[in-house]
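FIELD: query
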Amino acid sequence: MPHPFDIEEIFPDDGDHPVRLPRRQAGNSPQGVAVTLLADYTLRTRAWLPSAAIVALLAESHVSLAGARTVISRLARRGVLEGSRQGRRSSYRLSRSAAVSLSVGGSWVMAATTTTQPWDECWTLVAFSLPQERSAQRRALRGRLRWLGYAPLYDGLWISPHELTPKARAQLTQLHLGAVTVFRGRRVDLDAVVGRDPLDAWDVAAVAAQYESFLRRWRPLLPRIIAGQVDGAEAVRARTEVMDTFRRFPTLDPQLPLRLLPAGWLRGPARETFAAVYDGLADTAERHVRAVVARFADGTYADVRAHTTADLLAGVCAAAEAADPASARR
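FIELD: result
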């Protein structure tokens, strides 16, 4: 299986205007922290935040002053942020393209870790052959297959228990027209010494270890959340970290049918723990972000609004535009 940080982008490319979201790194990168912070409290409204407030919030996540300023500049160049200046005061907000991409990605993460589809015991096989000189295209194809939940059973033969969706079909066609063949069918059992179990394409034990690590990290915090013992700055940091960690699971856990997995699979408990942390700290974190923003600008900043896992599943941007159609034109 891939290392948890091998997938390059935070979310799959989606939307009419994809933006260059920060690449994954081992640990929480400053750019990733900044995107998560802004998304967690302004994705619904695309509120403008003073750059000084963004720097102050990043400082609470142990990003240096110089590092925070560099992050803002780089995210603006990537098209993730758009800026505005009034006198000596500069402000930034998520670009519409970034907001759409992050909203789609958040919904995808929630759906991928919630939905359990019945299985017809058939496998989808993607076979491809590319010459050595097309190594970049081969890497791109493999990366896309990873995003779609496939894994390599053999070199050039990737499998998934799920049907090929129209969207996946279109993506594979665009990447390598004429270089890919797709089949779907049942496995024929051979002698155990000769045949390879399709499940061997995934390192199930390694996925389980990631779930166990996640639960060890976050379950001890739940009693303090219930008791209201987590203060504002810690609440913001915890929501940022738990989101940055949990959103990787759809790329690690390919949503294999539960009947193929060991008993007591921890996908459900991990999602429940994520929701307990992320939702349980939402109000405390929102109040803290508003307080920090208020130090650098006039007004109460009611547009700073935390969202929940239910909001993410529904699509935060979609919910905002349904409530206020004019927001789609601003």
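FIELD: remark
The two ends are 43 Å apart (CA to CA).
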